[in-house]
Amino acid sequence: MTQTVLFVDDEEELRNATNQTLMLADLPAKVLDRAELALAQISRGFDGVLVTDIRMPGNDGLWLMRKVLEIDPEFPVILVTGHGDVNLAVQSMREGAYDFIEKPFAPSRLVTTIQRALEKRRLTIENRALKREVGGRDKLEARLIGRSDAMVALRKEVRTIAATDADVLITGDTGVGKDVTAHALHDLSSRGPHPFVHINCAALPVDLVESELFGHEAGAFPGAMRARFGKFEFARQGTVFLDEIDSLPVTVQAKLLHAIQERQITRLGANDPVALDIRIIAAAKTDLDVAVAAGDFRADLLYRLNVVTLNVPPLNARRDDIPSLFLNLAAQAAARYSKQLSDVPADVLAQMATRDWPGNVRELRNAADRFVLGLEPAIAASAQSASSLADQIAAHEKSLILAALTSQNGSLKQTYEALGLSRKALYEKMQKHGITKTDADA
Predict the structure, then answer these.
(1) 8-16: long-range contacts at Cβ-Cβ below 8 A with a sequence spacing of 24 or more?
(2) pTM higher than the cut 0.85
(3) Per residue, what are the HEC states of the chain?
């Protein structure tokens, strides 16, 4: 995305000097002498920023700022002030101005301020695009959200496998969305209109596992006053989702293997088998190969389950998906709590993508709930205290230049050639970051 700087000032000499400064900084610019000319180019989708002098004949910079903020309250407006206008500029920031620069200003100060404003604008535009994207996907994309390679590949696999009747093993860390993936497989399959039975194997009472899964006849054990369908029978023509299957006792695994392999069960206390027309989807939070080696999981059951294996990636493997995922979860939370969803600041979304989420999507969903309820000050606070993306990029660029200088023993020619820069570009970047040749020896 090419971002444009609109610079407005009635002084021709300052316009020309500023135009040259921005050109040297590789910042596309349009310099204008009247507020009306700038206003005509600004829309809610305009991807640049505005720098305007306050004092101008006719409609001044404050008039222009207010008109621009009526079009888009998040548009970055940088005011250029004279010495006597500082108080006025401060007041204008309370009205929504992004920043102000006092004349006479250093070119580097102007460039740095504009770069930060452009980054803010880029994030705002991206934020809005992500929010539009939430409502524009097909059903699978609305469930398994993300543009990362890992999520694109997962959706492709789900679409392919859903069309078959193969049993599936879903693996992944706690909270990544294994249950959502299982639901998607069921809903996209021909079994979608029939029951989806979610069985949390870790929550089954040890002494009632067989009864819960396979059912029982009246009198099968003390307290069994009448016959009862098990969950497998209840799922006829549908899907059984065995969540946390790695939690099942080994003693039950043998009977489960028989039910899956033969597609039939026998109720406790009965002799006649009951045929099953079901699909099996299992999920595990641990490595089942390790569990098999430790004797905690039957190898034959694993081989029967993993006809197809899907791995749901953790959030730290798809950080680019976090902003759109958070917006989607926040929209869901707002609907649940009957709340109006306010705009999530772009810098907050950017900062969240750098955070660690050990609880994965489940933890992110909790954060979205707290944000909607106004109970997540930590997100905003950490976003304010963290370095902006522009600062992080600048720091990275500086470290690369210093490393190149060091490896080239301070030779500027070899350094700019190694970095693929022109001599002029290297000098400008060194000046921007305050780097001297002697820094190579530090």
Answers:
(1) 8/32, 8/33, 8/34, 8/35, 8/37, 8/38, 8/50, 8/51, 8/52, 8/53, 8/56, 8/61, 8/64, 9/33, 9/52, 9/53, 9/56, 9/80, 10/34, 10/53, 10/56, 10/57, 11/53, 14/53
(2) no
(3) CCCCEEEECCCHHHHHHHHHHHHHCCCCEEEECCHHHHHCCCCCCCCCEEEEECCCCCCCHHHHHHHHHHHCCCCCEEEEECHHHHHHHHHHHHHCCCEEEECCCCHHHHHHHHHHHHHHHHHHHHHHHHHHHHCCCCHHHHHCCCCCHHHHHHHHHHHHHHCCCCCEEEECCCCCCHHHHHHHHHHHCCCCCCCEEEEEHHHCCHHHHHHHHHEECCCCCCCCCCCEECHHHHCCCCEEEEECHHHCCHHHHHHHHHHHHHCEECCECCCCCEECCCEEEEEECCCHHHHHHCCCCCHHHHHHHCCEEEECCCHHHCHHHHHHHHHHHHHHHHHHHCCCCCCCCHHHHHHHCCCCCCCHHHHHHHHHHHHHCCCCHHHHHHHHHCCCHHHHHHHHHHHHHHHHHHHCCCCHHHHHHHHCCCHHHHHHHHHHHCCCHHHHHC
Statement: residue 142 has pLDDT above 70? yes
Q: Please answer whether residues 276 and 263 qualify as being in contact, where contact means their C-beta atoms are separated by less than 8 angstroms.
A: yes
Residue at token pair 């905003």: 380
Q: So what's the pLDDT on residue 168?
A: 96
pLDDT in tens, 20-33: 999 998 899 999 99
Confidence of residue 278 (pLDDT cuts 50, 70, 90): very high
Return the higher-pLDDT residue of 8 and 348: 8
pLDDT at 333 over 80: yes
* pLDDT above 90: percentage of residues in the chain: 35
Q: Which carries the bigger pLDDT value, residue 83 or residue 35?
A: 35
Among 70-84, 89-103, 355-369, the range with the most confident prediction by mean pLDDT is 355-369
The span from the CA of 292 to the CA of 295, in Å, is: 5
Residue 69 has pLDDT above 50, yes or no: yes
